[in-house]
Amino acid sequence: GAVVSQHPSWVICKSGTSVKIECRSLDFQATTMFWYRQFPKQSLMLMATSNEGSKATYEQGVEKDKFLINHASLTLSTLTVTSAHPEDSSFYICSARGQGEGSPLHFGNGTRLTVT
Amino acid sequence: AQKITQTQPGMFVQEKEAVTLDCTYDTSDPSYGLFWYKQPSSGEMIFLIYQGSYDQQNATEGRYSLNFQKARKSANLVISASQLGDSAMYFCAMGEVVRSGANSKLTFGKGITLSVRP
Lengths: 116, 118
What we know:
The complex is a heterodimer.
Chain A: E1 4-7, E2 10-13, E3 19-25, E4 32-38, E5 44-51, E6 57-58, E7 67-73, E8 76-81, E9 90-97, E10 105-107, E11 111-115
Parallel strand pairs in A: 2-11
Antiparallel strand pairs in A: 1-3, 3-8, 4-5, 4-9, 5-6, 7-8, 9-10, 9-11
Chain B: E1 3-5, E2 11-14, E3 19-21, E4 24-26, E5 33-39, E6 46-52, E7 60-61, E8 64-69, E9 74-79, E10 88-95, E11 107-108, E12 112-117
């Protein structure tokens, strides 16, 4: 089945630095990918929709200059958390839909970001 | 706007027994898709089952079945013959009907924690 790979699985960075998270569709092309954020014991909140070859669409309240999304190819989307702060510490997870009728949304394994 | 409601507190079930996880939804869209995902402590989101709003029959996938009651706007997940490995967080979600070209943005409920006792 379709597989979405996310890297890194976890990252610790210092406040003020930037962190890039990659999301790859391994055996299918994904023109659209989604980035979610999840705080402990809470639900997934959609941050933005990543569109191949065009600008990402951000949900209300999400700072596009802070969370930079690039979808340069049909198999790769990246999320860069710029000038990270401790409040950005969270679980970030991407998703993409497999091709074909009935394909569900597949998720990467997520990235646990800790900003110190 | 779409809304998913999961209000059950942490659920406990004895191994080998069945358990029902509740999910209600609200939407003004005439067609929609309902999904259940499992999230173990490792964090990955595992797709379990999907139900389209116009599907005539309730979806089933192995030990998982979806009790879809459209008039009540509920889409409860039934897990039969619970296993210890079923202990996890379970999320109900709503999005477009799954078809080629559909936008797959999902709205998630708050989730339910299921613990299976040996």
